[in-house]
DNA sequence: TTGAAAGCGCTAACAC
DNA sequence: GTGTTAGCGCTTTCAA
């Protein structure tokens, strides 16, 4: 409807229309049973006929709680896809998409899952969810903007500088996702990177009996990568292998770079297994290995970490460690609610379990 | 940080710490240039040392605008995946995922894209985004909750009953996505379903010269389906074909049902082309056609509509009409902002262009 | 350039 | 049961 010259109706309008006080209107909304039925009906009729919608802001201000939780994600990658061979017909573009290389948009999908989990949990608890992607220089503004409107804030690791987060945390509970930040005083929820990688590596080394391994790590400053690498080393020790036995290279978690690294690796010597610190890298490795004419898993097994969708569709499908991103979002909301009821107390960290998914690139047995 | 026994600081706290009035604090925040530098510095220092974050609610209340737009999506499908053959080791589950049938989670991905588009646009305009998935009986509550906290609301078609929407629209601008609801008085943004299907069908009939066609429609009450079907009929007329020539069946937009329908279809007679009203159906049809030992596109071409991810990974890859979901979200926010500056005026409808993506299941030429 | 004061729309005592 | 009233934390005239 677009008709609307007047200001939106308020409790006062409803009250006078129904011939009651504003307190009674408020009661009808919040504690209906405390109002006589006849009165209630009159008020409800007034609400309907006026088109009254209570102001969440006034309510939050008076009630000292907003009923909203915030979720701060890293900036969505706004990568407009390129499209080949375009023809236009009758206003509708026709694209020959046959050779279109499917682009990895994985990281976005990740956040989407977190978001969905958070939304679900928030809804179940009667809370609304406010999302923001903290990118660009105006990040401070956004953070403050969001922080000022919510009862608690969940922030994905490395989205916001610690200093800013600490400022915000003096006002509302903050929980950091995907990184254990207890040392900084934050509650946090992360995923059991180390155990996941250790278990997967144990499969490769112990179960499959492979001894010739290359390890494709990620950026050295990634906390995820550090934990995964630690888990990997742990598995080596478990089986009496010296880490030195393994050729380790550092990538950037990207597919392209991993492809290059894998090529170099294969030029030197072909390991029996290539274990990667994330799925994107593993897909890049897969590209290189297959391009070299090697067969996976027969000549070479390849593993990833994350459980991105692309790994379910690759050929061969990618063995990986699946992170429960939806659960991460859900747990975040739960943690905020918990902290709201118990403001004091030491920071807590929750570790969510991961799952090893054995697929064709590194099967249960050879 | 978890230390926090006291209430969050307010303008008053900042004001007295800086030895100024609350008005000055407000000015420092909103119109810094209107305050002498020395004063400003003192205030900013106080803000930092107190950990002051302005209350968005109080601000919205006083300022009569929230700076937030709402996005209402249909309930996320909370379909916990089933997992086969589980083994546990050291706390980490190991799953033999080799035969795991990839489940279609497409519709969710859709909303995710809309969401991302909306978030991006909102951010660029300095607005925050509040999301909610309106499911269950408490939908009314949610809608009112969200509506009371935002300056405008974007709603995906069929998420909220018209009546409720009209109520809300008396307070704030409402824009409906994916369905032209001008007749009900709403601004709306949709996708050019008819032109998309017409163009695709013209390719099949005109370019490829196919005359033996089956059409798998969706639920009769779906506005999307109606438009697509109209576009299809239009293409038939364009080429002098009577709609009666085409065998039409109605599915439910789901893969499973489409598989059944296709089987029945093939039992009767094998058409040269099967045009489907959405991708899920087309994937189901593909399943059935291939299971029957027919080759696609050699024996049979198959087309979908939507442009879901699964269609990029299917074998053969699915020819389809791609809807710009991200643009839908972006346009929604823009429409709200527009309407905010121009409350009066007839409802507007925006049609976004679609793209035909020719892939292997129905290539540019045979 | 700064301060005082009047709301913004609601909730929650506290009276009646 | 229902009404009165004092805030909730901020913005914004209007004066000074």
From TrEMBL, chains A, B:
PROSITE patterns: HTH_LACI_1, HTH_LACI_2. InterPro entries: HTH_LacI (IPR000843), LacI/GalR-like_sensor (IPR046335), Lambda_DNA-bd_dom_sf (IPR010982), Peripla_BP_I (IPR028082). Keywords: DNA-binding, Repressor, Transcription, Transcription regulation. SUPFAM superfamilies: lambda repressor-like DNA-binding domains, Periplasmic binding protein-like I. Residues 9-63 form the HTH lacI-type domain. It comes from the Bacteria. Pfam families: LacI, Peripla_BP_3. PANTHER family: HTH-TYPE TRANSCRIPTIONAL REPRESSOR PURR-RELATED (PTHR30146:SF148), LACI-RELATED TRANSCRIPTIONAL REPRESSOR (PTHR30146). This is LacI family transcriptional regulator. It comes from Curtobacterium salicis. The lineage of its organism: Bacteria, Bacillati, Actinomycetota, Actinomycetes, Micrococcales.
